[in-house]
């Protein structure tokens, strides 16, 4: 046994150790989004229930802070690392240190890029998230029905597009899935992106910031909709951005006095947005059950601690620039207003009171 052993070993052969002697470092990006709080709590609770020690850290969306936290987890003897990266390309030296100390690394929801030292990836089918978001936009506009058949609406509809942070690998998968789905409708002119901004670079929102999305929507309204036309649909890849977009629209009079709120999509089923969907303000969100993701992270961490390879269900899709990272991908589900009760409330993800108030009880 090179290292590992009793107590503060870190890495090495851990298969003979008791859970209480093993520590899992969990690095999460930010607490400003409640999804990451739920993710962090779920992973911690599930690991602690099995007797492991957990070092859970949030980095306030600051890259140096996250690098430092991961460095510290390594020096303090973590046996496995679970990391949801802020910038998927910024952790190479930390991951090299982890590999040198034989600490397996699990990328959590966001792929860590440009490093050979990512051992496993747990996430959702991110391309399908984008397809689902674009489909919800088409359904909301009436161009398509929920069963995928052609809708009765003809258009042309004026829409705008948003994407996530360019340094997050997921943002590209979401946008690709969405654009592949929207392209035929843009080509046959039933959809028109009035601003002309259709590349991911033009529509990306750094760090997934709500305020930045609000500002971009305000700018779009001033620059492209100052001629009496109205934006009718907005592709938004994440509920936080959707709330910024909706605020900008409401400030410009949308959703009041006969001015229709455009169809706005989302992702993550954040409680404030679930309320907006329930109130008929936001069209939909994509639900990714973070409880299941946390469970997968725990299963993968345990496999590594027992010196086994976790089971992957995808060994092709997630090339991180150096290697294809074996992945376990979970399915996703679109939530429209009618789905809130059966999908989110009945499964215990949110209570009916939380949906009504728009606030998590914690
Ligand atoms: C992505 C994640 C999304 C959303 C977004 C903003 O990486 O896949 O579900 O949470 O970050 O936090």
Automatic annotation (TrEMBL):
Location(s) in or outside the cell: Cell envelope
Record has Signal as a keyword: yes
Residues in Periplasmic binding protein domain copies: 24-308
Pfam family, one: Peripla_BP_4
Annotated stretches, region: Disordered: 1-21
Composition-biased stretches (Gly residues): 1-14
Keywords: Signal
Main subcellular location of this protein, as a coarse class: other
NCBIfam families, alphabetized: ChvE
Name of the protein: Sugar ABC transporter substrate-binding protein
Origin species: Micromonospora musae
